[in-house]
Amino acid sequence: MGSFIIKRVLVSIPLLLIISFLTFVLINLSPLDPAEVVLHAQGVPKITDELIAQTKAELGMDRPFLIRYINWFMACLQLDFGKSYVTGEPVWSLLGPAFLNTLKLTLVSVIFIIALSILLGVICALKEGKMMDKSVRGISFFLTSMPSYWLAALMIWYFSVKLDLLPTSGMDSYKSYILPVIVIVLSYAGIYFRIVRSSMVSNLNEDYVLYGRACGLPEKKITMHILRNSLQVAISVFCMAIPIILGSTVVVENVFAWPGLGSLSVKSILSRDFPMIQAYVLVLAVAFVLFNTISDIINAAMNPKLRKDL
Amino acid sequence: MTRRMVAFLAALMALMVLLSGCSDGNDAKTGSIAQGKELVYATAKDINDMNPHLYPGSMSAQGMVYESLVENTEDGIKPLLAESWEISNDGKVYTFHLRQGVKFHDGEPFDAEAVKKNIEAVQKNAKKHSWIKLSTKIVSCNVIDPYTVQLVLSETYYPTLVELSMTRPYVFISPKNFINGETKDGVNGYNGTGPYRLAEHKVDQYAIFEANENYWGGAPKVKKITAKVLPAGETTFLALKKGEVNFVFTDDRGTDSLDVEAMNKLAESGDYQIVRSKAMNTNMIAANSSKLDNPIHETAVRLAIWHAIDRETISKQIFHETEPAAYTLFSPNVNYANVELKKRGYDLEKAKKILDEAGWILKDGQTVRTKSGNKLDMKLYYDANSSSQKTQAEFIQNSLKKIGIQLQLVGEESTSIAKRRSTGDYDLLFNQTWGLAYDPQSTVSAFASESSYYHTTSGITKADELYKKIDQVMVSTDEDTRKSLYADILTIVHEEAVFIPITNGNVTVIAPKNLQGVSFKQTQYELPFEQMHFK
């Protein structure tokens, strides 16, 4: 098992290298002169050729591409993503707090999503095809397909304006979490609940269930077995839910004025704050690779057959 | 089970509602507004870096915290931190007598030494301020005595006082906030002399400004102003309805977070009032007269486009009458711009006639006019992030089709549009004049500037004459000469139709019904909060 973990981690390193390189290349492919982008981002009203030359030298942009990439990458390893084009502050000082804010929101949401989808998935699988199952599936389908923007506006209107219970937006106290978490949970729980349900249903028709019943095992014990087997599939999916939600909070953060990664990425993209965009992409990529690795390791721990793949 | 499930869900909902009902004892900072005491305004963007000598910060916030030597008002230049001034006969030396007893927010005295340090700090970064011509003309800034300071220029420059009155860069920050005697690489605090001081700032969340009780102009009546970051217009509207936010104005960059319908709803509720300023700037299309291989080079084509744009409908349908139609590059309330110019309205027949006479013929069975084999086909660039520009572009494209002009629309980022403008790689593009406090001089000097409208103006027959007059007007010392020069300049660009005006932009404020003294400055970027008070 130990050697599997080491192998699995080693595999993800070249992947990260490739991602970091691609990020850097893609941004540098932009047809705009980075020095000009910097000046625009700083809001300088009039940009002259000498000013561009001066900025280039200041930012070391007159150096060859590969050298710039290596410098940037070495600095990234020390969490130094350079300075924001707009404010000149270190990228990490802005990205760090935003990342934490989004992470808090994501973790709270994921906990609720897991609890809710396991609960509903199990209930619906056991009641497959009955009214209960149909109605939960119908509702979840409806909620998942509803644009979260609209759902959020509706929630704010009802809970905060009409009932005056919660703040409309911002991040002031634990109350601020309630609405955004509800919106994220309602948008995603439906997807994960279906996964739990379908793997439960497929397990229900397995031979070992029939065998267990034939041996006269108590139904509760059988259900626990089924649950354990079906959750194996779900665990890797739940693991990936964290980076997926981390990267897709843009809409919710925008509506709820949540000072997180989503808001920051939009802001950086609009002002072409390249160092910020690079860092954002990199952080998300690391999150994806990291959770993917974790889910593989957990699965391997639960199912020895999977360890031979590497 | 179904019933149990329903019960469970109901319980879950009830739990959430209960949870949310629990008070956590400390009222959220921006959760409840002390009615009748403070203002909380919604802004789409964070106030950003408040360094007054650079450009990323929010101008409305900087306008509360920092002050300039003089102020630009409707009635001309008025004293601010300088009580009086003299200009030498050759127009090169300005002597300012400073207001005494003024202190920065950190208690540092505001005196001649502080003025000198600030002006020198700005000049050290002069390349970034090249848009403001004054930055290229300051030779030195000398302390005469503790309250007298002298500004020496390399040549006469009539807009000196106007440019000194602008929100940035010639405003004053406590010398204690300088880093290594400079401000160009950042400052370590934001202490100005203005009516409000920045008390707290949480990036991307809010910024709190508190009244400066020792303000030389008397402590402001509204004691606390909070800028709350709300990127989504829907949330802003709901927050206004709930009362978490009670003030909105058209902030920087002219992005309105609320649409007209939402504004009217708020006003109808009886809690809010809508206050609109007079015309502040003009939204227009700049036409590239220097593009010799394109029909846009011809005056006739530009005139036809001018006549084919139905401004009244644009104002009604797209701007819901918040922006009136514009028929001249500058609205008559701009200094020196009250000039007799021929009004050209919406007239498709006239547009067709102009094109026919210029040799652009619409052949039978064709939709686009041609002249010696060339099609009457042009590209209009608009800012992809502006929904109103896109709508206008589509509307204009449709109007031009009726007179046989094919217009291709290209939406791009504002940075690419700015780049096109400076390199001349465009036929037509959306743009706007600088605004009341800056006009006419800033927009007019941009006519001749490579990085601005040089390509717009350089293709006209009278280009050389135009540039000469622009140079003359900037160094003129005599009011009558200046008036006639501006009249000539504006007449030339009007006759050549290189700037095709569409509407006049303004500032719109939504404020609590009981707030009085809501007025405007000469710029769309700031508001005089210190004059507001609750009934």
Automatic annotation (TrEMBL), chain A:
Residues 99-295 form the ABC transmembrane type-1 domain. The chain crosses the membrane at residues 9-29, 105-126, 138-157, 177-195, 233-257, 277-298. One of its GO terms (cellular component) is plasma membrane. Keywords: Cell membrane, Membrane, Transmembrane, Transmembrane helix, Transport. It is found in: Cell membrane. It is a multi-pass membrane protein. InterPro entries: BPD_transp_1_N, CntB, MetI-like, MetI-like_sf. PROSITE patterns: ABC_TM1 (PS50928). The keyword Cell membrane applies. Pfam families: BPD_transp_1, BPD_transp_1_N. Gene3D superfamilies: MetI-like. One of its GO terms (biological process) is transmembrane transport. PANTHER family: DIPEPTIDE TRANSPORT SYSTEM PERMEASE PROTEIN DPPB-RELATED (PTHR43163). Belongs to the binding-protein-dependent transport system permease family. This is Nickel transport system permease protein.
TrEMBL record, chain B:
This is Nickel ABC transporter substrate-binding protein. Residues 1-25 form the signal peptide. It comes from the Bacteria. SUPFAM superfamilies: Periplasmic binding protein-like II. One of its GO terms (biological process) is peptide transport. CDD domains: PBP2_NikA. GO terms for cellular component: ATP-binding cassette (ABC) transporter complex; outer membrane-bounded periplasmic space. It holds the Pfam family SBP_bac_5. PROSITE patterns: PROKAR_LIPOPROTEIN (PS51257). Residues 77-452 form the Solute-binding protein family domain. GO terms for molecular function: heme binding; nickel cation binding; peptide transmembrane transporter activity. Keywords: Signal.
